[in-house]
Specification:
The chain is α+β, with helices and mostly antiparallel strands and about 240 residues long. The protein has a single domain (about 5-235), classed as Glutamine Phosphoribosylpyrophosphate, subunit 1, domain 1 (4-Layer Sandwich), CATH 3.60.20.10. Helix content is about 20%, strand content about 35%. It is built from four helices and twelve strands; from the N terminus they run E-E-E-H-E-E-H-E-E-E-H-H-E-E-E-E. Strand 4 (about 55-60) and strand 5 (about 65-70) form a beta hairpin. It is globular, with a radius of gyration of 16 Å. Residues about 1-10 and about 210-235 have low confidence and may be disordered.
């Protein structure tokens, strides 16, 4: 799996595979709001929609995030309506609506998942199904532990365990060092099943999608469609 480094003015990415959750990311050089895009995503999370099992969105505000999550369907959510007009302006947002495959429909299993590392809030969302992840030596957990029961949160905790040594130093790690860890992690996930995910640490944003499912990724904005298996954006 390869990564490409880009500097972009604005990028809006929607990702969904057959029978999967849906992901949305906004990345911009200037603060912006999720308006129509959030409503369009939420419409797929109606009770009778394709992804009715909860939703969430994380808006970066400096090195922290404003996090909103709800285990109820997004389609008729009053909170979604509020965020369309009154949500925070942000240069980077990550959103997810859930189609449950593993774990109960609860807040603990609702994405995005967040963890602190190196004084930064790290955000992760995933769609797909990774049935063998609990027995995978490549996805062993370190000091981070899941709160819920999903394969997605387990994957995030395994990623954080890999990133932790980089961020334990006094200064933030280089982009190349982070990229190397993320590339190896993405390759390991692909061996377990569909591995579409979005990850951010405040000044980098990574997106990957499964090349076998071309419908899983749609991109618009200044960057246009991305042909590589994943991309890293550095603000």
């Amino acid at each position: 799996m390869s990564f490409r480094v880009e500097r972009v003015v604005g990028d809006l990415v929607s990702m969904r595979g057959p029978g999967m959750c849906e992901l949305l990311a906004l990345s911009s050089s200037r603060p912006a709001r999720l308006t129509f895009s959030l409503r369009t995503l939420a419409s797929h999370g109606a009770i009778d929609g394709t992804s009715p099992h909860g939703w969430g969105v994380a808006f970066y505000q400096g090195e922290d995030v404003a996090l909103f999550r709800d285990a109820a369907p997004a389609g008729d959510s009053a909170l979604v309506c509020y965020l369309e007009t009154g949500g925070p302006s942000t240069p980077l947002a990550i959103s997810h609506i859930r189609r449950a495959t593993q774990g109960a429909v609860t807040l603990a299993n609702t994405q995005p998942f967040v963890r602190e590392l190196g004084g930064r809030t790290h955000v992760f969302v995933h769609n797909g199904n990774l049935p063998g992840i609990w027995d995978s030596a490549a996805m062993a957990l370190g000091r981070y532990r899941p709160v819920g029961q999903t394969d997605s949160e387990h994957a995030f905790c395994a990623l954080m365990a890999r990133l932790a040594p980089l961020w334990d130093e006094a200064s933030p790690p280089s982009l190349q060092a982070r990229l190397s860890v993320l590339a190896a992690f993405a390759t390991g996930l692909r061996a377990l099943g569909p591995a579409n995910f979005l990850y951010a640490d405040g000044d980098t944003h990574v997106r990957t999608w499964e090349p076998a499912h071309p419908a899983a990724q749609r991109s618009c904005g200044a960057a246009g469609a991305v042909d590589a298996a994943a991309a890293l954006r550095a603000r």
